[in-house]
Amino acid sequence: MANKIIHFLVHGRREHAEFRLDCSAADMRGVGMPMELDDMEHRLHHLERRVIEEMGDVPEVLHELQIQVESFKKKLESLEHMSWLGLFRTDRDLHLAHTKPPTPQPRAREGLQQVRRRFLHMSSLQLTEDIKEHLKTPLFDNWQWEESELLVLLQVMFNDLDFLALLYIEPDVLHSFLFDVYRHYNDIPFHNFRHCFCVTQMMYSLIWLTDLRTKLPPLDLLVLLTSTLCHDLDHTGYNNAYQVTTPPFCPGLGPCPVTVFLLVKHPQINAMTDLALRYNNQSPLENHHCAIAFGILSKPECNILKNLSQQQYRHVRAGLIRCILATDMARHNDILHQFRILHPVFDFTNEEHKEVLMKIMVKVSDISNEARPLAVSEPWMDRLLQEFFNQSDTEKLKGLPVAPFMDRDQVFKPSSQISFIRFVLMPLFTELTKLFPCLEQHILKPVQQALEYYSNMQRAMKQKE
What's the pLDDT at 244? Predict the structure, then answer.
């Protein structure tokens, strides 16, 4: 019987726990149940208040313990076979959660500094060759790594692509840049720093799998990696449809999030947020992500582009803006159509061709979860639904129209994924695979398997009705 291993840190030591995939409550008879993690967290907060009152400061070991408890909870939430702990969130749990959605909160200063200290402490450590090679594949499991460790892995990506040597990036500046990027991702269910890492790691994988280093210059590779790193900076968990429009239901396609965006032709005014007003309804989120990215780069201690020539800087800036704006799904059809036209005559020496390819690769990386193993991808689906439900709950409270694909009372998880995979992922991934046939086994086949998985789930659920 296959086992599932989860890794975590205890006082800086890597530990692990092993469970059978079919582990259930029945298997735990006669075994003492662990202390409820929520109760443990409450005890930690109580202890912290006492320490603050008595000492005026919080020992580092207490912050370390808090981080470990929260990290362990998040890992358990992603494992369905750990449901006997009452931590795994099922579809039914998501539907029952009718509470008012929380407003995105900035990270606590103490927690940020703890992550920074650990990141800097580990930044000089050398990864094993096995981990380095695994990092270059879509099989990489982000759930097994702490956020400070993910920062180290991002540093490894910049180093392995020779950006520091070729583009004169100073190590200390890279550290500051990566941490400031981390600091500007909000603690929300889906569009958070961990999502940013996954998108960047998928781009890193694509660069290696397609041997792109021999086809594009280092500046363009820097644009690809940095745009994926910054593509969702300061995302609040409310999409462009909330900012400016109310998309209609798409007959025949079912409640598919992305296809709804693609077919909107006559938007109606919805929330009209400050971002919508600032950017005149034109990709407000993506323009905001760009602005935050260049705000970070404007700081001397974070400016990884400061040693580029003026011409090189202009090239990188234009590329970052172009690639980040391409992640607005309202532009999906146009970009895919451009790529289809260019594909038969694609030329890596043609700047226009390269620009379209770079946008396609960023888009593929951004929505690539289904190309990963199911144990990695499915928790992301649940997190996306949670974020959608938070938005629709807010819209209901404000009396705004609610899109069916975001309404917790109407969403049917299998059919939503089937539509998304069939009408968005498959056409996009198929076109990229035509240019790079080597990607078929790495991203196209896994997506086909995901489609089969959700189709089987849909049939099984209908049979139970």
Answer: 80
Tokens of 456: 């089987």
Q: 63, 175, 184, 191: which is the annotated catalytic residue?
A: 191
Positive or negative: CA dihedral 142, 145, 147, 149: negative
Closest alpha carbon to 373 in 49, 82, 78: 78
Q: The dihedral of CA 118, 78, 395, 256: what is its sign?
A: positive
- pTM as predicted: 0.77
Q: What is the pLDDT of residue 41?
A: 65
Q: Considering only CA atoms, which of 243, 244, 248 is closest in space to residue 259? A: 248
The pair of structure tokens assigned to 34 is 């662990």
Say what the pLDDT of residue 32 is: 42
d(CA 18, CA 410): 37
Burial-class residue 406 by CB neighbours within 10 Å (0-12, 13-18, 19+): buried
Give the type of residue at 194.
R
Bridge partner residues of 6 (DSSP): 17
Cβ-contact 360, 428 below 8 angstroms? yes
Banded model confidence at residue 269, pLDDT cuts 50, 70, 90: very low
Q: Examine the pLDDT at 253 and tell me if it is beyond 90.
A: no
> Which residues have CB under 8 Å from 432's CB, separation 6+?
360, 361, 364, 439, 443
Q: In degrees, to the nearest 5, what angle opens at C-alpha 181 toward C-alphas 176 and 187?
A: 130
Sign of CA dihedral 120, 124, 129, 132: positive
Which residue type, as a one-letter code, is found at position 227? S
Vertex 262: Cα angle to 343 and 453 (nearest 5):
80
Report the relative pairing of strands 3-10 and 13-20 from DSSP bridges: antiparallel
How far is the CA of 28 from the CAs of 20, 24, 88, in angstroms? Answer: 12, 7, 16
The yes-or-no answer on residue 191 being catalytic is: yes
Express each pLDDT in 150-197 by its tens digit. 999 999 999 999 999 999 999 999 999 999 999 999 999 999 999 999
Residue 66 near residue 44, CB atoms below 8 Å:
yes
Retrieve residue 299's tokens. Answer: 């700081």
Interval 380-404: pLDDT, tens: 999 999 999 999 999 898 888 888 8
Q: Where are the alpha helices (DSSP H) in 255-410?
A: 257-263, 274-278, 284-297, 310-325, 332-342, 351-366, 374-397
Q: How far is CA 244 from the centre of its chain?
A: 23
User: Do the Cβ atoms of 320 and 280 come closer than 8 Å?
Assistant: no
Q: Average pLDDT of the chain?
A: 83
348 close to 215: Cβ distance less than 8 angstroms: yes
What residue has token string 């705000």? 295
